[in-house]
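Practice problem 4.
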């Protein structure tokens, strides 16, 4: 079931990329595994998926441990992304396991993420739509945060946003277009802000058409997760 859903999602991504005149290979699928058992993640790895996203520090640590029990080769094939809001007191737990932090949303978190030794790269989370309930810096603050990342030695890989949940994905196209414009403005004098992490189950095709390089998709791959606190959220819907 997971393999078939992955195939269907990849086909939709490729079709959206072709509509926009893009190479489908420039779009990375991050499978968000909140509430998904390690055995199911192993199925996705067997189907060729390598990038996985978690939005809770405890789940990330536990799944990394459980996948190691499935074999060193499988565990080594997995590249973890942290896609949820990260509390500063959880940084030490997340940082050693994470290839990319998608949700760097302020100076204090940046200072914690810098830590000791080379920091993993990060994306600046931008609250493009200005929703009070969501994390992220305002678009006009992103440049100052980028300067702070440079000062701290954190590789800035690009930008991330969470679009408002709307019945019609076309309604959030302006949000994705605005993030792409901001990335271009901030990156006009540098070549390291390549990534645009935007688009989830309900709107990822529009995100691809507007330039997304990373998609955070959970439900379309794994279905609705079960159990208290493990349903679809703003980072994996």
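Answer key:
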């Amino acid at each position: 079931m997971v393999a078939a859903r992955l195939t269907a999602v990849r086909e939709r991504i490729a079709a959206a990329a072709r509509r926009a005149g893009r190479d489908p290979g420039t779009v990375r699928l991050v499978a968000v595994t909140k509430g998904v058992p390690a055995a199911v993640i192993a199925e996705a790895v067997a189907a060729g998926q390598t990038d996985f996203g978690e939005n809770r520090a405890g789940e990330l640590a536990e799944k990394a441990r459980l996948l190691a029990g499935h074999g060193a080769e499988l565990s080594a094939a997995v590249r973890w992304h942290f896609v949820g809001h990260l509390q500063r007191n959880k940084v030490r737990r997340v940082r050693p396991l994470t290839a990319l932090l998608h949700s760097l949303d302020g100076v204090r978190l940046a200072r914690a993420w810098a830590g000791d030794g080379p920091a993993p790269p990060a994306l600046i989370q931008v609250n493009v739509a200005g929703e009070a309930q969501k994390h992220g810096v305002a678009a006009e603050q992103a440049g100052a945060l980028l300067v702070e990342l440079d000062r701290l030695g954190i590789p800035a890989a690009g930008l991330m946003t969470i679009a408002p949940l709307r019945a019609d994905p076309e309604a959030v196209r302006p949000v994705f277009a605005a993030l792409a414009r901001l990335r271009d403005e901030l990156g006009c004098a540098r070549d390291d802000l390549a990534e645009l992490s935007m688009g989830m189950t309900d709107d990822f095709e529009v995100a691809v058409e507007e330039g997304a390089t990373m998609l955070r998709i959970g439900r379309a791959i794994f279905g609705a997760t079960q159990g208290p606190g493990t349903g679809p959220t703003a980072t994996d819907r």
